[in-house]
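[job 0412] stage=fold_complex status=start
inputs:
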Amino acid sequence: MKKKQIVVLASIVLVLLFVMGSFLFKDRQQDTLSSLARKNADALVREHSQTMGSASAKVAIVEFMDPGCETCRAFDPFIKQMMAAYPGKIKLVIRYAPLHQGADYAVALLEAARKQGKYWETLQVMYDTQPNWAAHHNPQPQLIWQFLPRIGLNVERLKKDMNDPEITRLIGQDMADARTLKVTKTPGFFVNGKPLVSFGYEQMQALVEAELRANY
Amino acid sequence: MNMINVDRSANTDWVILFFCWLIASVSMLGSLFFSEIMGFAPCVLCWYQRICIYPLVLIFGIGLFSFDAGVIKYSRPLAIAGWFIALYHTLLYSGFLPKSIQPCSEGVSCTEKYIELFGFLSIPLLSLLSFSAIIALLYILQRRISS
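[job 0412] stage=fold_complex status=done
writing structure:
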């Protein structure tokens, strides 16, 4: 009888230790990542970073993303909804963390489309058609081409602009910044420099609303 | 007098098995902490070792509830299989074996260094120590029961 109790008690103690350890670790991680973002504030937004929304908006969401990432695609409408709910108060800054295979190619395409003033339209097309070209076992970013004429992009010009060495440099800079800020998964969000450590819709909403309250 | 001795001996056997269970449980929770909380992706070899250690938690646990010497027979193959994988992994990790023969060229690297406690205790070495301790305790238990 007593022995069974020992086993049960030991199990409970082990599980409690695990849970406590998790909380401690998450707490410490939150501190580390926040102070990293504070110390490297210049790594959050670069000159080349594309921004959506009013320039005077006081809540800036920085998103480290990859056009081939499913969660980025799933999260995108949610961000847009928040921006629509608080017009002029939230802006979105796109940074690249092309972690998926073939993502560099998609990012280069996107940056080339920017030269034709169709950045956001192209990103939307990439998200919409993502299942067609970004399958994990077989990513084929070159399949994106067939979807581009529908938004009126000049494909010939796009092909030329894609090879601009400036784009390679820009991707390299974004990846270096992602490493500096310890963004290892996409999407990686920062709201006014505060990292979203525990990932989820509610957590993101809470973080954005806290910043809205603090700034408006 | 004799009854008391038998009783005490049985108690020691139970305690030895309890330590086997404790090592397996700590190993399991530790590996889950590394992967789920700290976010270290487990490589292929880590998964094979997990396959060996996780069932041991249940097998030892059942053996503890109604002390059953058969537990040695059922747990030893898993412990030994896990030990060999852990040994291979440790040798690979420490560079004794050339990297070209590792089976995990794609996905997560088996030789990427995540943590090294006290400067030398890597995750594969922790695993090897766990399996070694379990095998040693099972051996002692076997000797005690059969004598």
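[job 0412] summary: Chain A has eight helices and five strands.
[job 0412] exit 0
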